[in-house]
Specification:
CATH topology of one domain: Rossmann fold
Number of helices: 6
Organism: Gossypium raimondii (Peruvian cotton)
Oligomer: single chain
Shape: globular
Keywords: Cytoplasm, Glycosyltransferase, Purine salvage, Transferase
GO molecular function, one term: adenine phosphoribosyltransferase activity
Radius of gyration: 16 Å
CATH class of one domain: Alpha Beta
Pathway: Purine metabolism; AMP biosynthesis via salvage pathway; AMP from adenine: step 1/1
Largest sheet: 4 strands, mixed
Protein name: adenine phosphoribosyltransferase
Distance between the termini: 17 Å
CATH architecture of one domain: 3-Layer(aba) Sandwich
Bound molecules: 1-O-pyrophosphono-5-O-phosphono-alpha-D-ribofuranose, adenine
Helix content: 25-40%
Length: about 220
Amino acid sequence: MLQRALIFSSSNPICSQLPTTAPPDNTVFPKRNGGWIIPFSSYQLPAFRLRNYRRTLLPPLCSASDSAANRPNMASQDEQDPRISNISSAIRVIPDFPKPGIIFQDITTLLLDTKAFRDTIDLFVERYRGKDISVVAGIEARGFIFGPPIALAIGAKFVPMRKPNKLPGEVLSEEYSLEYGKDTMEMHVDAVKAGERALIIDDLVATGGTLSAAIRLLGI
Ligand SMILES: O=P(O)(O)OC[C@H]1O[C@H](OP(=O)(O)OP(=O)(O)O)[C@H](O)[C@@H]1O
Ligand SMILES: Nc1ncnc2[nH]cnc12
């Protein structure tokens, strides 16, 4: 997934049918070809070092580990990777769901395709293994599908970022706007420590609101 610090962009080889509406001005993600930023894409940005994690979330405290200079290289590697087009075609696109004007990217069909699903996980594992990442933060709900296998394979812990009032311990909360509504995301306060390097995983970035909230929650 997902962004001076982040994860993904769109001219995205996997979900190539996303609409090309520009993200809001306040997003920090790169806009390649004026498209959206979305997880399974070539412009991945990677992981953050939580230098100074704190409970009161203030301005960005983390930096991206992969320099901008390395990213075009990653992009061209992905463009040559034959797995990407197969993964892209395994995602079903449903217009006007859940309401008119939304072009829904349905990853449940990807999950039915064992090769495409495995290849998706492998792509992330190949990219992030050996990068000193100790935390994979998965965003509910679809980040819970892709995050755990990636976390196990790269030897990181998995931290769920949950919908409100689901976690039993002390939490940090972030409210955010969605393409179709508002929501709140929560994370256990003690799940991530200062100095840890985190990778945020989700299935898709549309407006970037969810990913931005996840970044704020990590205190980046
Ligand atoms: O970039 P954004 O505009 O924030 O949208 C992207 C988010 O929207 C979807 O989740 P959703 O909130 O629909 O929750 P779900 O996974 O529980 O269905 C998707 O899985 C991302 O988390
Ligand atoms: N276009 C989209 N497809 C799938 N999930 C989404 N969540 C927000 N926008 C979405």
